Amino acid sequence: MHEPDHKDTYLAPVDAQLGRFIDQHRSMLVHCLDGLTEDEASRRMVPSKTTLLGLVKHATFVERVWFGEAVTGASRAELGIPETPDESFELAETDTIESVLAGYTQAVELSKSAVDGLNGDDLLPGNRRGPLPLRWVQQHMLRELAQHCGHADILRELLLAARTSQPD
To answer: For residues 29 and 97, is the Cβ–Cβ distance under 8 A?
Structure first.
């Protein structure tokens, strides 16, 4: 997968490192859909609801929970997102690579705007668990994205392997 060049990341303050690592993983998740057909992107290769397109849709939900709900205290209904993580993997008939990527791009932009000017020690008041430091939320977000990038790598590998094993 693609990884942006951030040679100075290892010298940056921790908060900047976290932001850069999150952005790298956001980019890697987006690129998991490169060159795929709509059918491939939404194909279920495992018993769960997990598909490549569903992973990106779920990442949109995660962005809105951790940088929307946690920062603002707005309810999931107010944010227009599902109530549960499981529901966030569900694809609608109208979901396409283009529409899901557009939603994800918008969610990332909202996430960045929500924390602009904050530092890692600032408390985000809106989480269901109670106030959490931004740095904890960033670390959790990095963990979420890393896990889903791993899922995406495996699913993409399976999809591409299926292309070469199909008779012409």
So the answer is: no
Backbone angles phi, psi at 12, to 5 degrees: -75, 160
Q: Which helix (H) or strand (E) holds 123?
A: strand 123-124
Residue carrying the six token digits 């850069």: 20
Q: Is residue 9 part of a domain?
A: no
First to last CA, the chain: 27
pTM for the whole structure: 0.90
In-domain check, residue 6: no
CATH classification of the domain holding 69: 1.20.120.450
**Per-residue model confidence as pLDDT tens for the chain (168 residues):** 444 445 676 677 788 889 999 999 999 999 999 999 999 999 999 999 999 999 999 999 999 999 999 998 999 999 999 999 999 999 999 999 999 999 999 999 999 999 999 999 999 999 888 999 999 999 999 999 999 999 999 999 999 999 987 665
Domain around 61: 18-162
Inter-residue contact 115 to 67 (CB < 8 Å) = yes
Instruction: Give buried/exposed letters for 63-81 (b at 16+ CB in 10 A, else e).
Output: bbbbbbbbbeeeebeebeb
Q: How many domains does the chain have?
A: 1
Residues whose CB falls within 8 Å of the CB of residue 53, separated by 6 or more in sequence, listed in order: 33, 41, 42, 91, 95, 97, 100
